[in-house]
Design brief:
The protein is α/β, with parallel strands linked by helices and about 300 residues long. It contains nine helices and 14 strands. A hairpin with a 2-residue loop joins strand 11 and strand 12. The structure holds adenosine-5'-triphosphate (ATP). This is ABC-2 type transport system ATP-binding protein.
């Protein structure tokens, strides 16, 4: 089978912080094909930031393998851009000087126009000092650095959390345009799943440090159905979540056989329904679609 190259590939990936008692990530195996826009979701403490920092080469895994842009995260550093949750920037610099620094650190690949479009899109002036910026303005500058770098892989840790709705819309559009124009892979963590619907074409859902769902969003949605009816027996189907409703019972299932002929209304769930059902039911069996399943572990070792 001819498969698209992987932007990120993990096998048996585990992480335990030096002072932590427990594993933060445990036996994570997944593959993110290049060129996708991947939503990274999961409850607080699931390990999303840790996974992004590992992929950015800022942390070393304690177990397993992680391959980024076909090499080690450390070797891929010049080819990726990482925007951390707290958006670290030099507070004494102006916005213009920050972008100049971005240009100096990324010779040969820096895109000043792209960086300026993002940085100055909402009236921010070049002479403004970073230390005097609001949280949302800092996010703009951090995203401007990331997009100016023309990275192959963007790792964005809750980038939209402190942006106003118009800025979110504008910057989401800028990210999607960049991804479409340059084939950039984007991993974007967020708690606002509804906002990622229609933006992301790939999903990675972590729960308690483990991969719960991974794959193309269309494939994951197609692997689930919402059944609503009065019967109580869901037959051969794997039930992720079931609850009563006005008309009887509704269940999110992974079909294990024919759905026709049952006394059910059958619907495809939305991405938000799929994610929320799995967040509420961490015991549901994990599912990786074919394109999210890595090659054999030894083949991805670096
Ligand atoms: N430097 C650290 N040392 C020890 N434990 C840490 C460290 N950083 C994170 N942790 C722990 O790792 C676990 C996962 O944290 P992480 O920030 O990766 O989760 P998250 O999914 O990004 O959470 P959130 O949605 O709240 O941002 C948490 O239990 C956290 O306390």
């Amino acid at each position: 089978m001819n498969r698209q190259e992987a932007a990120v590939e993990a096998a048996g990936l585990g992480m335990r912080y030096a002072w932590g008692r427990d594993h933060v990530l445990r036996d994570c195996t997944f593959r993110l094909p290049a060129g996708r826009i991947c939503a990274l979701v999961g409850p607080n403490g699931a390990g999303k930031s840790t996974l992004l920092a590992l992929a950015a080469g800022l942390l070393r895994p304690t177990e397993g393998q992680l391959r980024v842009c076909g090499t080690t995260p450390g070797a891929a550093r010049t080819r990726l851009a990482y925007v951390a949750q707290d958006k670290p920037l030099h507070p004494q610099l102006t916005v213009a000087a920050t972008l100049r620094l971005g240009a100096e650190l990324n010779p040969g690949r820096w895109d000043q126009d792209a960086a300026e479009r993002v940085a100055f899109g909402s009236g921010l002036t070049p002479g403004a000092r970073v230390r005097a910026l609001s949280g949302g303005q800092r996010t703009r500058v951090a995203l401007a650095l990331a997009l100016g770098k023309r990275a192959e892989l963007l790792l964005l840790d809750e980038p939209m959390a402190d942006l106003d709705p118009l800025s979110r819309h504008e910057l989401t559009g800028a990210l999607m345009a960049t991804a479409a124009e340059h084939g950039t892979t984007v991993v974007i963590s967020s708690h606002v799943v509804a906002e990622l619907d229609g933006v992301c074409d790939h999903l990675l859902l972590l729960g308690q440090g483990r991969v719960r769902l991974a794959g193309d969003t269309d494939d994951l949605l197609a692997a689930h159905r919402l059944l609503t009816g009065t019967g109580a027996d869901f037959g051969p189907h794997t039930v992720v979540e079931e609850h009563p409703n006005g008309r009887g019972r509704t269940a999110l299932v992974r079909p294990g056989g024919a759905l026709e002929g049952g006394d059910w209304l059958v619907e495809e769930p939305t991405l938000e329904e799929l994610v929320l059902a799995h967040l509420r039911n961490p015991g549901a069996p994990a599912l990786l679609t074919a394109d999210a399943t890595p090659a054999r572990r030894e083949e991805i070792a670096v």
